[in-house]
């Protein structure tokens, strides 16, 4: 277990039981250079208990709007904070993700935190002139804008698409001719992916290790840039199982492969806006450094090494805490 001593800076990790949060908390603890306060709704979850065994202090604090006072208390005494927003069920015109993010940031300021690292994404609204609707990107960019206006040091990590999406949300279907990967991307367009469970931590730890150097920086976190067809081909090669790609890029294709999505029109609109944005404009703005995360984390998982490590054969996996 990591030795807790008060001489080490304390970092509060918001959403510590999330895939990203777990990675960040574990990387900070494993370094032996930080104390970690892990914020979660459920202190008795497996994820929380695992972090506790590694030396984290577990504090109950829900990620929801209207909790700024509680978050301020929860972050008290922290030198740094990793902030993330959970997946939000979007019911327009509610602005829940932005509100949660703004309140978390204001709480960090109120608690006297010196440096916040926020898990953000590009501003799709601005980059597309309002033609694509992907509020879970744009709202993070609006939170980033808010944080940049605060008198607090800040840095931003932009995680690529998660490999885990195919394990927990877009699971391949088994048929007579093998697995069908219905993928929300066209077959030949290279897009960035990462493993949130292992990639977020090294990036955020690097930033806290060199706090001044990374002040005001927005940094992509990438494991590999590859096409949907390459993902399927790699899966076949690694697992030896027959599998083929099917497009779920258009609305009709998406609803054909995932009919249950039809019950949630904002989700469908958002998914389509997101993938059209990524394909037509690029997931990252042109000026981003696409090599940084792989330079500072040379063990960053490619899709192939992710598959081998996870020993994933196409089954449904859950990463719930
Ligand atoms: N999927 C992708 O390809 C992708 C790519 C880039 C960025 N992102 C962003 O990543 C974020 C999600 O990160 P993740 O996948 O690491 O999270 P996750 O594993 O889904 O976990 C989210 C955590 O937030 C807490 N939570 C969930 N729903 C909540 C609610 N309604 N109220 C309060 N707390 C809630 C839960 O922790 P407790 O139970 O402990 O409270 C949960 O462990 C989203 O903002 C998403 O937009 C996703």
TrEMBL record:
Keywords: NADP. CDD domains: NmrA_like_SDR_a (cd05251). Residues 8-306 form the NmrA-like domain. It holds the Pfam family NmrA. The keyword NADP applies. Belongs to the NmrA-type oxidoreductase family. This is Uncharacterized protein YbjT (DUF2867 family). The lineage of its organism: Bacteria, Pseudomonadati, Pseudomonadota, Gammaproteobacteria, Lysobacterales.
């Amino acid at each position: 277990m990591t030795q807790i001593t008060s001489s080490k800076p304390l970092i509060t990790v918001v959403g510590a039981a999330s895939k990203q949060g777990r990675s960040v908390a574990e990387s900070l603890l494993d370094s032996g250079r930080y104390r970690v306060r892990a914020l979660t709704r459920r202190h008795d979850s497996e994820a929380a208990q695992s972090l506790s065994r590694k030396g984290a202090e577990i504090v109950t604090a829900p990620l929801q709007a209207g909790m700024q006072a509680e978050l301020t208390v929860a972050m008290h005494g922290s030198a740094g904070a990793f902030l993330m927003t959970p997946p939000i069920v979007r019911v327009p015109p509610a602005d829940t993700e932005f509100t949660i993010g703004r309140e978390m940031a204001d709480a960090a300021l109120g608690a006297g935190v010196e440096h916040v690292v926020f898990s953000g994404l590009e501003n799709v609204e601005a980059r597309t002139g309002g033609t694509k609707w992907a509020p879970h990107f744009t709202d993070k960019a609006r939170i980033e804008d808010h944080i940049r206006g605060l008198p607090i040091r800040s840095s931003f990590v932009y995680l690529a698409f998660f490999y885990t999406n195919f394990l927990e949300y877009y699971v391949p279907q088994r048929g007579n001719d093998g697995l069908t990967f219905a993928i929300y991307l066209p077959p030949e367009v290279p897009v960035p992916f990462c493993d949130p469970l292992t990639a977020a931590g090294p990036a955020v730890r690097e930033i806290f290790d060199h706090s001044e150097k990374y002040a005001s920086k927005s940094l992509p976190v990438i494991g590999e840039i590859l096409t949907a067809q390459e993902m399927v081909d790699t899966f076949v090669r690694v697992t030896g199982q027959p599998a083929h790609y099917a497009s779920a890029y258009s609305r009709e294709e998406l609803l054909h492969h995932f009919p249950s999505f039809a019950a949630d029109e904002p989700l469908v609109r958002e998914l389509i806006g997101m993938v059209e944005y990524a394909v037509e404009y690029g997931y990252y703005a042109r000026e981003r450094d696409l090599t940084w995360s792989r330079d500072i984390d040379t063990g960053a998982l490619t899709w192939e090494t992710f598959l081998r490590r996870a020993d994933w054969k196409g089954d449904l996996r859950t990463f719930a805490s």
